[in-house]
């Protein structure tokens, strides 16, 4: 079948991991853009950074989390398409 790259189990695993990645990275993006104090250890700061620069770094890290979440959405859509192609293949074989 044309376009079929992975099997049904791998597609299901991709869907589950994509959903988890989207939720996790979206929450991290929200927390980073709201300058959560708990995440200060995860922000790449130097000793010379001022508070304004620290807030800018928080925003950049939050933006990167949203970009990564969008990439997980694309991977999830790909996995859904693979799942549908697998279902279609099973229907045609019978």
TrEMBL record:
Q: Where in the cell is it found?
A: Membrane
Does the record bear Calcium in its keywords? Answer: no
Q: Membrane topology type, per the record?
A: Multi-pass membrane protein
- Report the superkingdom from the record: Eukaryota
The residue ranges crossing the membrane are: 12-32, 61-81
Q: In which broad location class does this protein mainly occur, judging by the first location in its UniProt entry?
A: membrane
Tell me what organism the protein belongs to. Answer: Haplochromis burtoni (Burton's mouthbrooder)
Q: What is this protein called?
A: Ribonuclease K
